[in-house]
Amino acid sequence: MNPKVLIIYTGGTIGMVNDPITGTLTAFNFDHLYQQIPELNRLNVELNTISFEHPVDSSEMNLTYWKLIATMVFDNYAKYDGFVILHGSDTMAYTATALSFMLQGLEKPVILTGSQLPINEIRTDGRENVLTSIEIAAAKKGNGEARVQEVVIYFENNLYRGNRTTKISANAFEAFASPNFPPVANAGIHITYQDIQNTKKINGLQLYTDLDNRVALLKIFPGFNANVYKSLFDFENIKGIVLETFGAGNAPTDKLFDDLIADYIKQGGVVLNITQCLSGSVEQGLYETSSFFQKIGVIGGGDMTTEAAICKLMFALGSSTDKCEIENILKQSIAGELSVV
Q: What fold is seen in the domain 4-207?
């Protein structure tokens, strides 16, 4: 029996075609997928497709759409061997990360892919991305288990853990990178899977849709004016803040800024410290300029990406109202998003 793969189209460049009358890009009918990619007929895979009623540009992605995608996977989980989600590349890393927290206990692949050029363009990267994603979604080990059992992103020959990925280019075909975690697989002449430990498993697939988006992102820069950010430290409206600092978690000494953070944490706010650097990790207390954070209860975010920090904070705040429990969630690896030493 051929493996079954469900393709979920959310929107994005990959599903766009040029309208011959208006010249604008419009979403094509995915019932005609085989016409656009005839090579699909050569795969020994049974494919089905479902689409958002109104496909969205990835810049319009939000919690409502994340819940819709996660629910689509959850509701169809028993029927299929794998899932391929066609998604715009701009916010793909955010969606993949969010799904990794929302779909826990996966034993099947959930692969996000897309393209930099529409799928009907001569030089499109979309065909290869879709074909290889489907092949990986259907791949099995010798014991019948799925080769990949987590949320991943496939783009331009590489399969990455979704919550370790960030978009690094607006126009290159190799648009994504995973600076702190190796690729899960590489697609050359053959698809080579790496011997990477699966993410933490729980008994059976569990769906979590309670995300709290009362979070903020503050990126430190030389000469920043703390007065500008006073309203950010309003615990009534903002329950958690991701702080992007220099290097290993450092920030300039500024009494007003220090007081704002300290008072916010005393009120019950959660502050998560991650590095601005593309690779590396926060080590609070390693330098004097981060020791204050350690003393007042700022949580070190280790080597999480910005996307992972934001989505994990939403997940933690949606999972509990107890501050200690929220902090414990942030400190542990939930879906392989954090290297725990």
A: Rossmann fold (3.40.50)
